[in-house]
Specification:
Elements lengths: L12 E5 L6 H10 L7 E6 L4 H12 L2 E7 L4 E6 L3
Parallel strand pairs: 1-2
Antiparallel strand pairs: 2-4, 3-4
């Protein structure tokens, strides 16, 4: 599988949830996705490892697309495309 260059993804909004535990990052992701246009990317910064699993599952369940999760310095960067 090819390595994704996350720096090349155009992000419409970043949600910084590095200091909060789940379900905080998931709740803020749900709020933030509604504030960006359809087809745009939301980037979530989450320090809680659970968010890296829960946010992609939520995105798929509600019809959005998770592009992936990238490890950063002590947190995860989660990329979600708003599809509806």
């Amino acid at each position: 599988m090819a390595q994704v260059d996350w720096t090349k993804i155009k992000v419409a909004k970043v949600v910084d949830e590095r200091a909060r535990a789940c379900p905080g990052p998931l709740i803020e992701t749900k709020k933030a996705i509604a504030s960006i246009p359809i087809g745009c990317v939301l980037e979530v910064w989450a320090g809680d490892a659970t968010a890296a699993k829960e946010i992609p599952l939520w995105a798929k369940a509600v019809g959005h697309e998770c592009l992936g999760v990238a490890a950063a310095d002590g947190y995860n960067r989660i990329f979600v495309v708003r599809k509806k």
